[in-house]
Amino acid sequence: xxxxxxxxxxxxxxxxxxxxxxxxxxxxxxxxxxxxxxxxxxxxxxxxxxxxxxxxxxxxxxxxxxxxxxxxxxxxxxxxxxxxxxxxxxxxxxxxxxxxxxxxxxxxxxxxxxxxxxxxxxxxxxxxxxxxxxxxxxxxxxxxxxxxxxxxxxxxxxxxxxxxxxxxxxxxxxxxxxxxxxxxxxxxxxxxxxxxxxxxxxxxxxxxxxxxxxxxxxxxxxxxxxxxxxxxxxxxxxxx
Length: 240
Fold this sequence. Notes:
eight-stranded mixed beta sheet; 8 helices; Rossmann fold
């Protein structure tokens, strides 16, 4: 499929797929959206000291990159699994300009070029664990989610659900899939997604999740969804 690079309102770039009439990120702000939905409302909401994260829709790697940055800031050891059936070529990714040439990230008391590290994120081998830093291990899997989930033994603590919209990829938003994701999640696990449609909220609830409607990112969608595996909510209720 053809993909076109477009600037979003916060200055960061995204990809547009004419065939699907769909963007990889919000046109109101790609980086702003990712930070709000997946880092602030997902990763930071998890109390797990060393969380295992499952991303559905690795795409441009922006969510993974922001998670790596947060791992270095918080010193939390994160294992990150990104699923992507149609990986993007590095030659296209580097044109998005997510990393400035002079940007630095402090890792293990030394300075490493963020440009080099971001490239490693995308050019590292698939289907194997790759420790990119002492706090962040990446595993990229080229697969169809509906097939992968039937055989996976992964127990993620946080799921970034970042598939294309339901009207574009209906097979990624089924009741059966959400049922399986609920079972897959570790106890007290969290699922976050940009999609706040009522039908999706009801599917998550039917699967067993307790679902919150939260404010969307600044300047973007009005609401997003965060879904908790019920163990967490029941425990909080008992504390009150």
